[in-house]
Every structure is written in structure tokens, then in C-alpha cells.
Amino acid sequence: MSSSSAAPTAKPPMRDALVAAAFRLFLERGYEQTTVDDIVALAGVGRRSFFRYFPSKEDVVFPDHERCLADMTAFLAASAQEDEPVRRVCDAARLVLRMYAENPTFSVQRYRLTKQVPGLRAYELSVVWRYERALAGYLRGRFTDRAGGTLRADVVAAAVVAAHNNALRSWLRSDGEDDAGAAVDHALGYVQAAFGHEAPGHPAGPDHPRGEDGGEDVVVLVARRDAPLWRVVREFETVLGRG
């Protein structure tokens, strides 16, 4: 055997191979027209291998969210008492951005696919809800001694998710060409300015909105006690958009 023979190319891990095969077929045939049998045939594995990694075909579209949710939960659990809570949940949301930015091509493909398939949009909403619950759970623990602490925690968590996702979708619509980090920092700056206060040793960042006198702008919303949370968040987004 010649010593110049090339070494065989290492195969990707089975999980990655299944994701790659699935998206290749989704792009060629469409999501609805692709079956699990089609995916495993292209990947060269059996059905049992597929379901070892993914409970359903929908899960193969979002293969990294479970890991990201676990990372976010661990990040929040490791928080120190001196961490400013709103800043901490904003930093936790940036973990989701980092996941998307690790593979812009895949993220853009998934965004386009999700827009076309109603079932995937519903699945994505359930994933987003789990992120929001993780943020709210941490904030409830930090706001437990405050009047209205539970409501504040839920509203802040919803605002963080809304701001993050608004910037994330803008980046995805640019086909991953824009600066995702700058867009998300700018969006989360609104949330920190509206709901947070600076902890010692953490000066306000450049993205915090400032008033004409150099101070921070403050947004105050008045809502009925029985107003649904989604309406409060939508009004908050509307106010920020006007700003």
C-alpha cells in the first residue's frame, strides 16, 4: 500500500448526520413530503437510531434547543446574589443568540422552513415559551420579597424574550449578514433601561437609551390588573417602537 494514500474522511456523528440528511430532504422535497424513513435512508441508519436522538420529525428541525435550554438553566442557577436580576436574564438570553450564530446558514434555513410550515411555527412557540418560563422562574426567586414580584418577573421575562426575538428575526431576515450581537444588545438595552437598575461595578452600557438631560429614559405603562400578559407586552413593544 502506498504511503501517500489519503486517510478516509471521518464520518459526522450520527446525530449531525440525521440533521444534515433531514434538511437536505426538506429543501429538496419540502417538509411535509419528507418522512422519517426518507431521512434514515439518506443518513444510512435505521429508524431506531433516529428516535434515539429525536422523538419526532419536528425535533430534528430544532436539534440544539434542549442543550441551549439546559445551558440557560445552569447559567441562571449559577447566579450570585449581587447579580442584577434583569441584566442576568438579558445575559441568559444572549446564550440563545450564540446558539443561532454558531451556524448562520443552518439558522437561516430553519427560519425559512419554519415560516412555511404552520406546525413548525407552533412547535417553535412552545420552545420559546420554555425559555420564557426559565427566565421567569429565576426572576420570581429574586423578586419574591417585592410587592407584585410574580407579575414583575413574568412581565420582564416576556419583555426579554420579545426584545431578543425581534432582533433575532431581523438578523435572520438579513440572511445572517447583519451584526446579530449589536442588534440583540440594542434590543435588550431597552429592557434593562425600563426594568433594571445598575448593580455596583456594572456601569450602564452604551446601548442604554438616554434622555435629553443625559439621564436614562424610563417607560411607565398603566394596565388593568386583569389585563392579559400578552397585551401588556404588546403595548410595551409599541411604546419602544415609537421611541
Describe the structure.
- With 243 residues, this protein is mainly α.
- The protein folds into two domains: 61 residues, Homeodomain-like (Arc Repressor Mutant, subunit A, Orthogonal Bundle); 180 residues, Tetracycline Repressor, domain 2 (Orthogonal Bundle).
- Helix content is 66%, strand content 0%.
- It has eleven helices and no strands.
- It is elongated.
- The termini are far apart.
Our measurement of the CA-to-CA distance between the termini, rounded to an integer number of angstroms, reads: 71 Å
Structural class: mainly alpha
Return the domain count.
Answer: 2
What is the overall silhouette? elongated
**Strand proportion:** under 5%
| Model regions low in confidence, pLDDT < 50 over at least 5 residues | 1-10, 198-216
Q: What is the second-level CATH architecture of the largest domain?
A: Orthogonal Bundle
- The number of helical elements comes to 11
Tell me the name of the CATH homologous superfamily of the largest domain: Tetracycline Repressor, domain 2
CATH class of the largest domain: Mainly Alpha
Mean pLDDT: 83
Q: Give me the CATH fold name of the largest domain.
A: Tetracycline Repressor, domain 2
The rounded Rg comes to 21 Å
Helix content: 55-70%
What's the helix-strand series? HHHHHHHHHHH
Tell me the major beta sheet. none
SS elements, strand count: 0
